[in-house]
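Service request form, structural biology core

Requester: graduate student, group of Dr. S.
Request type: structure prediction, single chain
Budget code: on file
Notes: please return the result as structure tokens.

Sequence provided:
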Amino acid sequence: MASPKAETGTTTKGGTPTKERFAPADWGCPPCAMVTVGPTGTAVRTDGETELLPGVTEGAPLPDGLSWLARATAEVAADTVHQGGARRPAVPGEYRDRRFEAHPTRRANGEVVWWLVDQTARYAAEEALTTERERTTFLAEASNVLLSSLNAERCMAATARLAAGFFADAAVVVAPASGRRLPVTRAV
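Core staff response, request fulfilled:
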């Protein structure tokens, strides 16, 4: 029976080579972009979802947009606190129109393997949630303020205050004309 620890990818069973259950070739591509960066800031190897990193070429320096990754590589290479397999914190950064969270693994030869997890969708969802919460806060406050009075002049003043507080530095509310008079309320 094949060993669950595969080192070569094949074993011999009765003289016939058989494939290991966990052969490295079966693992396929990493689920995220992977870049191995040398001590000089050169991309040594790329793998996984490399289409997320156009311009990153093996054997070439990292592009200008990934200068944050080159700086982080130098910091990880010089880091003596996280020796012996201790986890290093992830490094956030942007490249082109994408946001990444880069997880480092330091190799004995000074290279750093970076696992770049695309966080673009998560950040967009967080921003949308923040916007929606602000909108809900405004609507709740506007509802409370406007429902507390049935007086038209007080409602106009409250509307101007709400607009100045949430939307602009100053607001002017002009009500429909009543006769020859045009009611106006302002707030700063």
